[in-house]
Specification:
single chain; alpha+beta; globular; binds zinc ion
Length: 205
Amino acid sequence: MALTQEKLAAVQQQLAGLPPEEQQKKLQELLTPEEMAELQAKQCPFCGIASGQIPAKTVYEDDMVKAVLDINPANKGHILIFPKQHYQFLFMMPDNEVARIFQVANKLAKVAFEAVGAQGTNIFVANGQVAGQNAPHVLVHVIPRFENDGVGLAWQPKKIEEAEMDEVVKKLTEHPISIGEEAQPAVIEEVKVEKEETEETQRIP
Ligand SMILES: [Zn+2]
């Protein structure tokens, strides 16, 4: 059954003014699982691929993650591995899903040597627009590499003074890291909520 414009408008009205976590809960009450999948597919192409609403060339799938060929590959055999749940940034994912996604990436990278004759692989994640993130959903890229393939992931090293390096170490070690964390609430950090209600604050998460 298709999610009609009328139903969507009615649902949006009921969500207005609720905080993000409650919007999510309310949505699940108001929509059937099929309608929910349809809505997510509209908002995020990778949620659409995860639920099967959007077709893709799948190379691996389990209960938590899915891996597909990138339709805009850097090289032949460029794979995208992503969580089936929607997370915008890697740090929002619970540790067990982070573990799974990199286990799958590592295994697929190994297979890529055989499958496309790769001579090397890069595994990387873009967190945020300045880092090159183009999708609203966490993606781990596995890029098979070949000699002189022209894929630009190299940089010129910068000179950072030792005192400044020490300062960075100090700041980084001030925050103790704990392993085994749950998912962080999916708050869209990039959106600044202004005093007046904007389109952005009223949209369905
Ligand atoms: Zn998504």
